[in-house]
Structure formats: structure tokens, C-alpha cells
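In this supplementary section we document a worked example of the pipeline. Step one takes a protein sequence of length 186 as its only input; no multiple sequence alignment statistics are reported here. Step two produces a three-dimensional model, which step three serialises into C-alpha cells for compact storage. The input and output of this example are shown verbatim.
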Amino acid sequence: AVNRTPERVFKVVFIGDSGVGKSSVIHRLCQDAFKSTFAATIGIDFQVKAMELEGQVIALQLWDTAGQERFRSITKQYFRKADGIVIVYDVTSAQSYLHLREWLDCIQEGDGDGAVKLLLGNKVDLLAPTKKAATEVAGSARAVEAQAAQRLADECSDSGKAAPALFFEVSAKSGKSVGEAFVKFA
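The serialised model returned by step three reads:
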């Protein structure tokens, strides 16, 4: 735990479809734990994560937004002064990946183009080692290839205003790559 007062505070907004694990990623980052059930976020919720990077203490204000369509207009308002936007999808759900373009449009409409972006493919712990195994055991088949997601992350700079998004595949459940992703992001 970091005991010094943060020298900088960064506002980070989490977006993505309902059920992709936004709240779980935040919980893993802040509590280093996993909760198997979360009630769907209504509106917006937030937590703070202090971390030390290169001798400097920073605080990340992690804004957890509702994934349901009816809350999108509320979510857009939070992009305006965001330093970072984390776009989360579920690697076992093609639909959550296909909706990423809509979320990227939301960022533009909400004036969040200047924010640093992090694309997270969550739930890699659910992946079966092979397609054959997915049918034989309780694993899930991969619905989104990492290369396709990396291409989408690279396209985030096409507006000319922004650098490409960072991209990581993570597991909020096991903690795989969550810390690493946020150290790079910060």
C-alpha cells in the first residue's frame, strides 16, 4: 500500500457492455481479489487506486460505468475530463467485441479523444486450451482473436488526435496481466 499523498490524480473511465467484467477488473486492481458476483452497475460508481511509479505517487480515480444502452448518455458526460478510458470486452463474447466500435463512437461524441485508451480483453481464464477441449470440458471457445483486438487498438489513433490504444488480455478472476496493464497505462 502507498502511504504518501498522491502527486497527481488521473480520472479513468471504464466502458464496455454489461457483463464483460468492468467492476471485476476494478475490484482486482483495488482489492487484489475477485468477487464472482456483482450486481449490474446502475449509472456510475467509482474507486481510487494509489500506486507508485518511478518514485512518484499517483492516484487513479476509476469510474465504473453501466454497460446497458439506456445509460450511454450519462456515460458520455464522463469522457470530457478523462485522462484515460479503459474499454473492456469479454474474449468469449463476439457480441461484446462487435460493440466496441459503438463504444469508440461514444468516446468521440463525448469528447474523450484526447484521453489515453486501454483496450482490455477480459475473462481469459474461461478459455479452453483448444477448440476441441472447449466442447469436452467446461472451458469456453475464444470468440475474439487477440490479433483482431490489437488491430482495433491500433486504429484508435486514426482520428489523428490520439496515440494507438494499449491492448492487453487479462483475467480479473486470476489477476493475470491486470497489474501489468495498469502500470503501462499509467
